Amino acid sequence: MLWFIVLVEFAIGTLKQYTEARLQNNYIYNVLTSLQYAYYFFLYYSIITIPRYRQWVLTFLVMFVVAVVVNFLWIQKLSVTAAFASYTFTLGAILLMMTIALFLVEILNTEKILYFKNYLMFWISIGLFVFYTGIIPFVLSINLLPDFLSNDALAIMFFTLNLVMYSCFTLGFIISRPQVEGLKQ
Fold first, then answer.
1. What's residue 46's pLDDT?
2. CB neighbourhood size of 60 (10 A)
3. HSE (CB half, 13 Å, CA atoms) of 55?
4. Residue of higher predicted confidence among 21 and 61
5. Count of Cβ atoms closer than 10 Å to residue 113 Cβ
6. What whole-number distance in Å separates Cα of residue 67 and Cα of residue 55?
7. Is the pLDDT of residue 183 over 50?
């Protein structure tokens, strides 16, 4: 998923650089964000072992997919000139944060808590949770208070929260690497 995101970002950046017309890319990010949420729900579904929690994650996934279809067809609509799909972004963020909470509760009740610092999914979860917790108020303000939030403020907030999230991911990959390499031997 990380490589897919890098590829999409690189492609959009390249297109913006080499096209004279302003490239409308919200529809690409709307689809990408929806795919990311679906991926995260599947990821946590595959990692969580408590059947009741797994059922909740599966319910969240179904709710999200239905909401995306309804939103893209009738509410905020998906088109080349589409606006940012803030409704599905916010719903996905809330459901993902609930999924991460289920995951964290599960590891608190297992032996994984003893080596959580070396557990890659812990770092990924922390990064995702911080990002989505921080960004929800700004995404909500796009619809509720559009004049209150400038594009520069939103860009700075997205950049800062992305930096924190990907730093957590990187830290997790670095710290968990010896554990992963030890498993290969």
1. 97
2. 23
3. 3
4. 61
5. 13
6. 18
7. no
